[in-house]
């Protein structure tokens, strides 16, 4: 495809959030004419930023995508490294569980600041125009036509060569694809909600250790805290809605925290806790799967529009950013041919994004229930030991997901294989230890241990002759 031909191609990116703005940068670098439509006002000038505010954990996949558009160093400089989980037990004891090696860490990033930086980067490209306050009313993927409406409330039809749906979990673009034959879709609201609280700075510094992701695991629910650049922590309480609904008064909330998170009360402050808990109701979390991610050569879904996932593996943003990176790599491979690129994108990303969706569900159970157990810590130490002696064979699941670009579904399969090998190995060594211990015990009881293996038969013969059992023991001789 000639460069002049590329410049004539028009692409509409629906959604100016994290994935949409990043995607616009990738497409602009290829000299497409790009229009970004964002329903919200410009968050850089808005008094109040609406939308989710759960802190983000930026890891290798997301950093690779940012690196491809030259933004990695800028964004990383605004993040706080988190090298381990810090587990807060009910007794107040704290213990650290490293994520990987000493050089491996994830970054706590502000969602709002990252979105602002990406929008600023987008607007530096002369071939991109961002339309704030413009909603998508209709989408005709067959013809590549969208209908948008701005502040004047006048619908406008515009034709594009490609429509890119980056409009989130409740994607309007996806609703039109759902009407097409053989388009599969499923969604699941998990029974848990989330609520955000804040731990303010203490004496101008962090109130807790800053380079950790703090976790208060309580089996059926948990609280986490991520550090911010302003020395505060953003706390997120994840809990079943039915438990949230039991906390009706400030007294209920304080008693609940005194029982389950006593060490957090002086950090948050009793008055702030009683006030902030009721500012907003607990928010829901949805998991979305669909297939396919594209329609012919005219429309494609990315990010949450294609695969909204729960936040418990810290991969929602990273998976969305990797969507953009994979699509860009395929555009290079197929010389910007949409008819070749879009089907291959779906073929590659569907199994991967479905895999990380399943792993995110699993990791919630691990975070709220398993991290505080000795068996979990033993498993982590075992994984790190095997990884150290066989780095290319045994790779911890978290390392594969967070610190590499191993495909998500391949990481999942490899993890299952590793678990089988480890379990068989533990069973084998456990059996050897049991047999060895039994043998040593028999040797300690008698110099002729095999004689006592025959003793039950002697008891039986004696009983047949005399009618009663004589239980002679080794120490009876």
Summarize the entry for a quick read.
By secondary structure, this protein is an alpha/beta fold. The chain has 17 helices and 20 strands.
Overview of the structural elements:
This protein has helices at residues 3-8, 18-29, 60-68, 72-76, 111-122, 172-177, 241-244, 250-260, 265-268, 270-276, 304-307, 316-333, 338-370, 374-389, 397-402, 408-445, 449-466; strands spanning 10-14, 33-38, 56-58, 80-82, 84-88, 94-98, 106-109, 128-132, 135-140, 145-149, 155-159, 162-165, 184-189, 192-199, 212-217, 222-227, 233-240, 286-291, 294-295, 299-301. The protein is α/β, with parallel strands linked by helices. The model is unreliable at 1-6 and 473-477 (pLDDT under 50). The chain contains 17 helices and 20 strands. β19 (294-295) and β20 (299-301) form a beta hairpin. 44% of the residues lie in helices and 21% in strands.
List keywords for this structure.
477 residues, alpha/beta, six-stranded mixed sheet
